[in-house]
Amino acid sequence: MRKALQGLAPYKVKSEFDMVRLDNNEAFMSLLSSIDLGKLQETLINRYPAESSEALVKAYGKFSSFPADNIIAGNGSDELISIISQYYLDPGDVVFVLEPDFSMYEKNAVIMGAVVHRISLNEDFSLPLEKILADIAERKPKLMYLSNPNNPTGQFYPPAEIEQLISALRQVDGFLILDEAYIDFAGESPFVKKVLNYENLIILRTASKAMGMAALRLGFLIANDQIIEGISCIKPPYNVNTISAQIGTQLLENPNVLDQFLLLQLGQIAELEEILTEFVRKIVGATLFPSHTNFFLIKMNEAKSLADFLYERKIKIRFFDDDTLKAVRISAGTKEEHAKLRAALNEWSEMYAKCI
């Protein structure tokens, strides 16, 4: 094992399909009924997926308003984060990540032998902009990763603040990797029409969240011509499999289905917010944060206790229980799943009331 890898822990995922899964920020239903399965029966699985990947990129370009020539498709955003790290990072390069934020940014930087500098968000999960700008000037990072909206907080950072980060990084030859995995829940990206104008901006997108294609593992990288040409030099040639590409293309070419699906999810997100607002009123010191995603974060000292209680009742949520963050993150589900969640939260809050 390389020295840089010592101490890394596996990202283990348990198969728990008998649970109500409100922990992974997935869409709560499948769009398979909207797929023409007959077309898949004609798939030449003995051929490499060059044509299907090209069709996928064109479909995503039309759907998202990004030029197809400036899009790279990946085996999920995870692969694209890995490719970015491989392309840019030499051992000893500095990488900025926020805390909290998506853990795979730091992990891929560590794998490449980079030096990771963590910057804690403010108490309300806003950006400590002045500190970040000062640290950029002092430490001169090669890359800065940032999810907007943020995972796990749900926070949406003002475009003007992102602009300042891009400008500051440009002064030190650094790049901003802007992960917009949840942007569909927040509205149109302010950078959708401007990304090609930046020398040092890479946008990441995914089909796993609002589009409900998590099983297909489809991610997209968008950047200017020079960045695309460079990263294409190290991207595996057949990294997106044909079946995923064909299903993804079918859905992207049917935007009415995806638009209606997003509206359905937004309705369930509003219902979840109502459930959690009612719950938080009963818990001393608990804070429910506003969200621009399909999940909500609740800061509370009893995060692990609540998560364990729900797990016993076959409801799985994500919890954070360390010195930097004590909180639970709960994703939107179906009406039936929300009914089970509401009942379990009421039961736990009644127990909590008796203990205080």
UniProtKB/TrEMBL annotation:
Domain Aminotransferase class I/classII large: 47-343
Name this protein carries in UniProt: Histidinol-phosphate aminotransferase family protein
Listed InterPro entries: Aminotransferase_I/II_large (IPR004839), PyrdxlP-dep_Trfase (IPR015424), PyrdxlP-dep_Trfase_major (IPR015421), PyrdxlP-dep_Trfase_small (IPR015422)
Originating species: Lederbergia citri
Keyword set, alphabetical order: Aminotransferase, Pyridoxal phosphate, Transferase
Record flagged with keyword Hydrolase: no
Cofactor(s) needed for function: pyridoxal 5'-phosphate
Domain of life, per lineage: Bacteria
Keyword field contains Transferase: yes
Signal peptide feature range: none
A Pfam family that the UniProt record links to this protein: Aminotran_1_2
PANTHER family the UniProt entry points to: HISTIDINOL-PHOSPHATE AMINOTRANSFERASE, HISTIDINOL-PHOSPHATE AMINOTRANSFERASE-RELATED
One MF annotation (Gene Ontology) recorded for this entry: pyridoxal phosphate binding
